[in-house]
Amino acid sequence: MARWIVINVPPWAVLAGFIVVIVGGTAVVQAGVRRCFPRLRQGEHNEMAQFVFPVVAVVYGFLIGFLVLALWGQVNSADQSTRNEGAAAVQMAGGLHAFGTADGERIRQGLLAYGRAAAAEWPRAAAGRTTPGAENALKRLSATYEAIKPRDDIQRAFLTSSLASLRDLSGARTVRLLQARTNIGPPPSLWLVVLLNSGLVLWFAVIFGAERARMHYVMVAAVSVLVAANLFLVTELAYPFVGVFSTSPEPLNEVVRVLSPSR
Q1: H-run or E-run covering 111
Q2: How far apart are CA 260 and CA 145, in angstroms?
């Protein structure tokens, strides 16, 4: 469900939805509590709440901070895999001049075909799935290099370097696809822990005694917005290849730009 929301709903709408639902829901609960338990307004329990609430808040802050940091690390790792893939292709493009006009053009066409196919398959690759176009383009590129017969030591050195870069490209692609296939977001148990901690934070804010209703509602609304923003961050960061914070196929597009004929 969370993945569907990240893919199909604009991030501003996701954030606004969290704020409206959490702030509105908490306000309804708060109104019911103030009406059904009028003695809570006197604040006789505030001393206990002041002792427990900081503990809950610290645990909640540590949990959200740790989770956001871990999810951001996944996004950076996915981004690094894509950059490695694009960098390997660009490095291979830099050695085209060493192979002569005919071989160099065949390699350029092979790299260009792979860059375009890999960028075109990105929506499917974001879920760990491949397309025959990209797979076949990579095989043809490998076959092109294998068919080259170096004529001197310079070409032999460039061929060795290019084959190493080709292995790096293929490895980075494999890692990227495996990351997209296995990074399916936090497990249900972790979502349950996050929601439980968020609920505890909101609950202690609601039962905190305050005679002035307006100030109490403002305080609880502020806490609700904070919780909504944290849940938004966790939701959007949970999927490294989709959403507003996800990695992008820009390194692959850069390969196409580098190899495309100048106009």
Answers
A1: helix 100-120
A2: 20
pLDDT at residue 84 greater than cutoff 90: yes
115 with 88: CB under 8 angstroms? no
Of residues 184, 175, 158, 159, the one with CA closest to residue 84: 175
User: Going by C-beta distance under 8 Å and a sequence separation of 6 or more, which residues neighbour residue 170?
Assistant: 138, 142
Mean pLDDT, rounded, of the chain: 86
From CA 174, how far away is CA 11, in angstroms rounded? Answer: 29
Tell me how far apart the alpha carbons of residues 119 and 244 are, in angstroms, rounded to a whole number.
18
This prediction has a pTM of: 0.80
- All residues at 6 or more sequence positions from 125 whose CB lies less than 8 Å from its CB, including other chains: 118, 131, 134, 176, 177, 180, 241
Cα 205 to chain centroid, rounded? 31
Element (H, E) at 255: helix 250-259
Amino acid 166: pLDDT: 93
Tabulate helix, strand, coil % of the chain (nearest 5). Answer: 80, 0, 20
- Kindly report which listed range (35-39, 70-74, 168-172, 175-179) carries the lowest average pLDDT score: 35-39
Task: Tell me what the mean pLDDT of segment 23-37 comes to.
Answer: 83
* pLDDT at residue 69, as a whole number: 92
User: What type of residue sits at position 243?
Assistant: G
Element housing 252 (H / E): helix 250-259
What is the spatial distance between Cα 120 and Cα 253, in angstroms, rounded to a whole number?
10
- Residue 190 in contact with residue 133, Cβ under 8 Å? no
- Indicate the length of the chain as a whole number: 263
